[in-house]
Amino acid sequence: MPEGVTSRPAIPKTGPALTRGLAGASRHPYLEGRPWPHLVIDGALTKKQAAAATVEIDAVPKEAMTWQVSRRIRKASISSLDDLGSTVRAILADLADPATVGSLSLLTGVDDLIDDPRLTYAGVYVTPPGGWQKVHEDFPKHPVTGLWNRVAVLVYLSEWHPGDGGELELWPRDMSACGRLVEPIAGRMVVFETSAATRHGIRPVNPGARARYAIGTRYYSPRPPAARPSSALRRSVRRPGESLRELIPTVGEMRDYLRAYTAS
After folding, report:
1. Secondary structure string (H, E, C) spanning 166-178
2. Which one, of 129, 180, 133, 189, lies nearest residue 157 by Cα?
3. Which residues in 25-54 are b (16+ Cβ under 10 Å) and which e?
4. What is the pLDDT of residue 9?
5. pTM of this prediction?
6. Could you tell me if 195 and 226 are in contact, meaning their C-beta atoms sit under 8 angstroms apart?
7. What domains can be seen in the chain, in order of their start residue?
8. DSSP letter at 241?
9. What gap in Å lies between CA 119 and CA 253, rounded to an integer?
10. 149-160, pLDDT tens digit by residue?
């Protein structure tokens, strides 16, 4: 196990549905994804599992969440297993299972993937009513292990209805136009490689809708992606017609990033 990577405590799993969905996924539709390779798998969780996870997250106090509020993002995350309920912990255990990690390697073509027990910039994502995230490139390296951030998985939990907002936007590198909108339907899983080419963001959640909940996990490799990010940190990218000023990180954001990347 690479230096800095710790083991995750044993947690009961949710059952075979999530892992089976990945094991049965074909690389061909993944490669055919537009505007860049990705795969959307519906029914990765049952409605009952997604609903149970949503109830657990509803019970997490706001002070246990890490909030990011700036010109570039309005979103929270929960990365400590101690703050999460049994259903969410079980889903995370499934996503960390060696069989799941192996399936992700086969699907994406990224060898030697390694799960992150620290859940750095991962765990549960909460996009509240009125929340959003600008289009961005994900951070390139794990701040502690130095491994390359190579694959991301999102599993949506909240009930979603047309008009609620909170869709995942997939943008090409030239930012000519949004290539796909992925609706955050409960039980849906999204898999993609993280690189400078896979730009993505979150559309604003309607103020009258419920918060958008998603479980997010990241997988790392000693090898960098072909399209290396142009920044050492997460970099927001301007949509057509968007003001460049909206993308400038705040002093607080820069401080938080630097603190993470200088942690021992």
Report:
1. CCEEEECCCCCCC
2. 189
3. beeeebeebebbbbbbbeebbeeebbbbbb
4. 45
5. 0.86
6. yes
7. 18-261 (2.60.120.620)
8. T
9. 19
10. 999 999 999 999
